[in-house]
Amino acid sequence: MLEERLKSWICEHQPLMADLQRVRELDLPQCYIAAGYIRNYVWDILHGYDRADRHSDIDVVFFDPDDASRERDELLERKLRESTQNPKWSVKNQARMHIKNGDAPYRSTHDALSMWPETATAIGARLNPAGGIELVCPYGLEDLFALRVRRSPAFLKREYYLERVQRKQWAGQWPLLTIIED
């Protein structure tokens, strides 16, 4: 039920649909637009706000252990930025992000997202070849739609999570959120 609602809302957001099309054209394995672009859009709708595109970047995540070079990610970012004139693109191959995060190697994009700080952030969307929307959401969508910010079970850095929630100032932007400090 929640997946269908999210897919419907994504289909109604033409800029997001255009970005999903651009990302699909990159033809990267296990590739999704994830994090704040999706999360903030849903929170805006649930707060009754006009779509403000409150995201500091457009996170593109994929998983390709055969070429996990930072240079490839930077080249893809430049390509997206130049083609859209939008500087917000951020492309990260999750096959190497475990090093930065101090985790064991990730096995897939799904596995990598399960290690993200918040359950409501660990969500991605992509267009399949037929144009349908596919989601990756290792913790489901309940927290996202319940306006609940909670630390992901696999994310063990509690102090970092708390600092991140404070720094992002989500409670000030979306006052209906419930922030769980655990």
TrEMBL record:
Q: Name one Pfam family in it.
A: NTP_transf_6
The record's section on PANTHER family has: BLL1166 PROTEIN (PTHR39166)
- State the protein's name: Nitrate reductase
